[in-house]
Amino acid sequence: MMRGMLDRRIVRVSLLILVLVGGAAFFAPWLGLPDPEEVNLAEKLAAPSAQHLLGTDHLGRDVLSRLIFGSRVSIGSVFAILLLIVGFSTFAGSLAGFAGGAVDSALMRICDIFLTFPTLILAMFFVGVLGTGLTNVILAIFLTHWAWYARIVRGIVLSLKSREFVLAARVAGTSRFRLVVRHILPSLAPQVLVLATLDIGHMMLHVAGLSFLGLGVQPPLPEWGVMIGDARQFIWTQPQLLLYPGLAIFVVVMAFNLLGDAMRDALDRSGMLEEAVK
Amino acid sequence: MIRFIIRRILLLIPILLCVSIFVFLILRMAKGDPAMAYLRLSNIPPTEQALMEARIDLGLDKPIIAQYADWMGRALRLDFGRSYVTGKPVLQEVLYYFPATLRLAGAGLLFTMLISIPLGVYAALRKDRAGDHLTRLFAFFGVSMPSFWFGFLLIYLFAVKLGWLPPMGQGGLAHMIMPVMTLSLMSIAINVRFLRANLLENIRSRSTLYARARGVSERRIVWVHVMRNSMIPVVTAIGMHLGEMLGGAVFVENIFSWPGVGRYAVQAVFNRDYPVLQCFILMMTIVFVVCNLMIDILYAFIDPRIRLAGEQR
Description:
The structure holds two protein chains of two kinds.
Chain A: H1 2-27, H2 63-99, H3 101-116, H4 119-130, H5 134-161, H6 164-171, H7 176-212, H8 224-231, H9 240-269
Helix pairs in contact in A: 1-2, 1-9, 2-3, 2-5, 2-7, 3-5, 4-5, 5-7, 6-7, 7-8, 7-9, 8-9
Chain B: H1 2-29, H2 34-41, H3 48-58, H4 64-76, H5 90-125, H6 130-144, H7 147-161, H8 173-203, H9 206-213, H10 218-255, H11 261-271, H12 274-302, H13 304-312
C-alpha cells in the first residue's frame, strides 16, 4: 500500500522532470539563450553571473545554453535510435514469428551472430568502420541492439499466434495482413513500448559515452557526453563544469528508468507481459 | 559430463566461423581503399600503376570467397596484418595491452560478486523493509549513473578533495580501487536485484514448502536449499556482466589512463586503423565467447538438468 503511493509519486516526479527537460529541449531556440557555440575567450571559465547563469566553459561558451541545446542532441538521438530499432525489429521479429520455417531460422541465426559480440565493443567496431560522428553512432547502436528486440518480438508473436482470439480471427477467415495489423500489432505494441522505455536510459548512456570518448557528436555541437569530455581537464580547478552535464544525464536517465519500471509493473499487473520477455 | 564439455567446445567452431565472416564482410564494406592504406604505409606514392600492383599484391582482385580464405588462413596463423599507423604487427600490440584490460575486467567481476551477493541476500531477507527499499534505490542509482561521470566523481572526491587515492595510472592495489568501483557499479546494481528476485521466487517454491514440512531448520532452508537454487541463474548472468565489463573497460581505461586495449582501440577508431580494430574485436569476442563457454560448463556442474538434457540428445 505504502509502496504503491510512493511509486505513484515517483512516477509523477519522473514525468515532471521529463516534461520539463523535453520542453526546454523543444523550445530551446526561443528561450533567449546565448548562442551555445559562440566562443568568447575573454570570458572563459567565468563564474556564474546574471548573463551566464551557470558560468562559461573553457572557450567562454555559456554552460546553461550548452546544457539545454545539448539535451536536444542527447534525447533526440536516442529517439531516432528507438524509432529505427522498434520499426525494424518489430518487422523482422513478426516476420520470423509468422513465417516460421527457413525464414525464421535464417533470421534467428543472424540475430545470434549479432548477439555473440559484447555490445559496446561491436558498437565501437561499427563506428570505426563507418567513421566517427553522431549519425554513425546512431547507426552503430541500432545495429548492436536490434537483434535483441527482434528476438523478443518473435517470442511474443509466437505466443500470440496460439492465443484464442487470434485463432478465432483465423477461423473467421481474416486475411494475413489484417490479422497482423488488427490483431497482433495492438497486443504487441504495449509490450514493445515498455521494453523501449526501459531501454531509453541505457541507450542514452551509450550515446553520451561514445560522444565522451570523442567518437560521436563532434565539437562545437553541444552534447552532454562531449561536455563531460571537455570538462575533464578542469577537474582540479573548475569541477562544477563536470558536475552539470553529468547530473543532467543522470537525472534524465533515472527518470526514464523509473518511468519504464512503473510501466512494466502496470503491464505485469494486467498480465500482459509475456513469458517471452524473460 | 565429458561428452557434454566436448560437445560445447565443438559448438564454438561454427560460432567463431560466423563471427569471423561477419567481421570480414563489415570490414570489406568499410570506406577507404585497403590498397591506398597499404601504399601510405609503405611510403609509395599512390599512382594508378602502384595502386593496381598493390591490389594484386593484397589479393583484392580475387573473388570475395578467396579473399576470405586468405584472410582466415592468415588469422589462423595469428597474422592479423600490420597497423596502418605504426606499421607493427597488430597482434603483438594488442597482446601488449590486453593483460591490463583482463586484469581490470577480472577484478571488476570479482568485486561485483563480492558486493552484490551479500546485498542481494540481505535485500531478500528484508523484503519490503527499509533495507530492501534502500537496495532498490541503489539499483536505480547504479543503472542510471553514467560510468564515465561516476569515475570523475570518485576522482574528485578521493583524489582531488581527500587525496587518499592516486587519480590515474597503474600501480598497486590503490590504483585499482576507483577503476574497479567505476567498472562494477552497474553490474552490482543489476545483480543485487536479480539475486533478490531469484531468492524470493525460491523461497515461495514448493520444494521450500516441503523442506519446511520435513522440519528442516529455517536457517538451513535459506542458506542451503534456497541459496543453491538461486545461485544458478546468477552464475549464468556472469557471462552478461563480463560483456559489460569488457565494454565498460573502454571508458574506465580512458578516464583513469589505464594502459589497456580499450584505450588503444579508441585511438584506432580515430585513425581508422582497420587491422587494429579487426584484431581488437576478434580478441575481445573470443574472450567473451570462451568465458561464456566455461560458464555453461560450470552451470552444467551445478544444475544436473542441463547436463542430462545434453547427454540424452
